[in-house]
TrEMBL record:
Residue segments, region Disordered: 481-556
The keyword Transcription regulation belongs to this UniProt entry's keyword annotation: no
Name this protein carries in UniProt: AIG1-type G domain-containing protein
Taxonomic placement: Eukaryota, Metazoa, Chordata, Craniata, Vertebrata
Composition skew (Basic and acidic residues), residue ranges: 481-547
Keyword Cell wall biogenesis/degradation in record: no
Amino acid sequence: MYVKAQENRARYETEDKYEEKVKRMEYEIDGLKQKLQSEGSIKTTRKLNLVLCGRDALLKISISRLIKENTNMKCYPHLINLVELPALFNTGFSEEQVMHHTFWSVSLCDPGVHVFLFIIPDAPLTDKDKAEMEEIQRIFSSRINKHIMMLIIQEKNMMSHINAVPSSATEIQMFEGRRFVLQNSSQVPDLLQDVENMIQKNRKSFYSTFMCFQAQIELEKNKHKAEIEELKRSVMKTAGVTHLNDDNGDDGVRIVLLGKTGVGKSATGNTILRRDAFTSTTAAGSVTRECKKEIPEVNRRQITVIDTPGLFDTEVENDEIRKEIVKCVSMAAPGPHVFLLVIQVGRFTKEEKDAVKMIQETFGDKSRMYTMVLFTRGDELKRTRVEDYIKGNRSLQNLIHQCGNRCHVFNNEIKDQTQVSELLDKTDCMVKVNGGSFYTNEMFQQVENNIKAEQERIMKEKEEEFKRKEQQLRAKYKAEREQLKRENERQRQEMQNKLKKSEEEFKKKEDDIKKETDENLRKELQRKLEEQQKEFEEENKKKRTTTELKIPGRKT
């Protein structure tokens, strides 16, 4: 019994040591598992995908590091995937680069982004922050709103005043009041709890790559649609045009002045009218901002002169100018007899050529029947005949030929009305050649119809091109996603192999410990038995000696 008790005692002591070693090994294994999980390779728990947005790149890096360093499995039991979205507003990126950055950021968050954290360095929002936010909404569409939370970074000992800032109220309301004011690292668990509450409120939905792709498709379609609408607006609809009063006789003439900024259109109109009806200066910019009409009598004839804004004005976009120029058709109702295309002697630059092309595209090919080229600053020709001047420039030759070889020269600095009479005579001759006709609203409508047909053709081509690009993008992004999946699978397999190897090492150590423990226990028991056997033998020897002494007559 004594021997058995000693054996049990030794076994218990050995088992306690063994359990202690086992617990230590289990702790090491748990640490390894947490390390592997933090690397995002073993998907044993749900993953939280966060995208950090905002203009300040350093601030995004700092917040990403802060969240990583202050998050563990105890305070937040899920893996956290942090992606930093580059700033999108006014960064010099092309539209294609911006689209690539946004799609790639979302594709890194499989299956989608749970929350976009829009980071600002403190309230109130700056104009650049607002512009960045608007750019994000433009690219990702309004569907992103329910997935955005404003993260306001405040310095220590600074009172939060976000509620008192009117400039931020609209943006916060847009995101249903979702915001978090972060002052120190101890608030990271609270931030993650707010994020989790937001996810639960959204029923665990997320902003997926498919939603991002849809938003980019819609953005591209809207862009093409806007281009088409802009083309439509460039030609003014003239339905319901009113006619001149009956006192406008058949011998009247309706003149429209067209041309680039600074070529002397207004001065030409004043020369024809014999008075300063239109404002004219030598400034580089256009003085005329809208079409203006004057109807005086010249040589007992009623002359309608319409001055138009100049193209390629440095202060106004050409599209805006074209919208105004087309009003001249209705102002010259029932239609102008002549378009005077005003060009300055001495220069026929690319801008002049582009202005001529723009005018011809606006009023159509038929307008050439009613167009005459008028050269201003005729004094600069000196003794050179206008015919010789035209021969010296191939582009001018082509232009004059397109206009039926009709041209005239004005010197706006002199008061000689002979040049005006000659201009009117050439105009009358042109009208007779045209059978007394003028440029009509129907012609203008035909131009509009042609533009519409061209728009539809362009739209069809762009749609086909867009479909091709869409297919290419789908194939490209699919390939990238497959590559990403393969890479993730490779990393996951590597981590699993590491874990398996660690578990095998643990098993081997466990077996070694058990084997060592059993051997030590056997030796200990053997030693105890030997000691007890020795004690037993010594005790028997003593007993034999005592017995022999007590037997009478026995010699010692």
